[in-house]
Design goal:
globular; 9 helices; six-stranded mixed sheet; single chain; AAA+_ATPase; binds adenosine-5'-diphosphate; binds magnesium ion; ABC_transporter-like_CS; alpha/beta; 12 strands
């Protein structure tokens, strides 16, 4: 199987301080990957390097087996879509217009949208249960709905790879599960590679094929949830003691902090 994303020994810094150090990893096509790590450990910076918003100081990135430097932005947008953490929309667009923006890599300049664009937008909205919201302004909907609209716009790009930066951090538990179930369905049924940052260790363990655990700009561990989320790794990275509890209907142990 080929790799959706290959990151080869990249380094990145915003100023003097190195924010990513020697990041080396391969993400298989069709995988569901969660990136975990404390605040400031470099998760967002890594995603921004992968989607070409930032350029590594050293090292190389391949997307869909092509050197990222050699993929034009419009081409990249057909392969990879990103739902950023702070996808603020400051104008009075309708939900429908926002999802239609996802079609831009396929549209010719000064041409209006095609029948195919309309069909794909409708499908993306049905998939994310946002079709009923289509005439509302983006400001009139809830945080959970907005998150689904941002994902719908990403799906309108018909990507093979979907990057999500903390897609559930603002949501209540029901909406968190809804978004993760949606990602899982897109992963399983549409074969979209999912790469998402998350804060909830247990949800990450439950939904992901693989976990990337970051610490201070470096990879602490990458692999199956049960091999990465050990007591020792969590203690090292988060500095807290945890207990791993085996639950009957969970493949992976449930992780709870030990109260002092
Ligand atoms: N635009 C920026 N300019 C300067 N430093 C930044 C910028 N964005 C992030 N950083 C710094 O880079 C480090 C990693 O940040 P980030 O990738 O956002 O971490 P995470 O997403 O894991 O919380 C932090 O120390 C943060 O302060
Ligand atoms: Mg972040």
């Amino acid at each position: 199987m080929s790799n959706a994303v290959e990151v080869r020994n990249i380094y990145f810094s915003y100023g003097y301080e190195e924010v990513l150090k020697n990041i080396d990893l391969s993400i298989q096509e069709g995988a569901f990957i969660s990136i975990l790590g404390p605040n400031g450990s470099g998760k967002t910076t890594l995603l921004k390097n992968i989607c070409k918003l930032l350029k590594p100081l050293k090292g190389e990135i391949f997307v869909d087996d092509k050197d990222l430097n050699k993929i034009a932005f419009k081409e990249l947008a057909k392969i990879m879509a990103v739902a950023h953490q702070d996808s603020n929309v400051n104008f009075e667009f309708t939900v429908y217009d926002i999802v239609m923006m996802g079609r831009y890599p396929y549209q010719k300049r000064f041409k209006s949208e095609s029948e195919n664009d309309v069909k794909i937008v409708k499908r993306a909205m049905e998939n994310t249960e946002t079709w009923a919201l289509r005439e509302k302004s983006i400001h009139e909907i809830s945080g959970g709905e907005r998150q689904r609209v941002i994902i719908a716009r990403a799906l309108a790009q018909e990507p093979k790879i979907l990057l999500l930066d903390e897609p559930i951090s603002q949501l209540d538990i029901k909406h968190q599960i809804n978004i993760l179930n949606l990602c899982k369905r897109l992963n399983r049924e549409e074969k979209i590679t999912i790469i998402t940052t998350l804060h909830d260790i247990n949800l990450a363990a439950r939904y992901s094929d693989y976990i990337l655990l970051m610490n201070k700009g470096e990879i602490k561990a990458f692999g199956l949830p049960e091999s990465v989320l050990t007591k020792e790794n969590i203690q090292d990275v988060y500095g807290i003691e945890v207990k791993l509890i085996k639950l009957d209907d969970y493949k992976v142990p449930y992780i709870v902090p030990v109260s002092s």
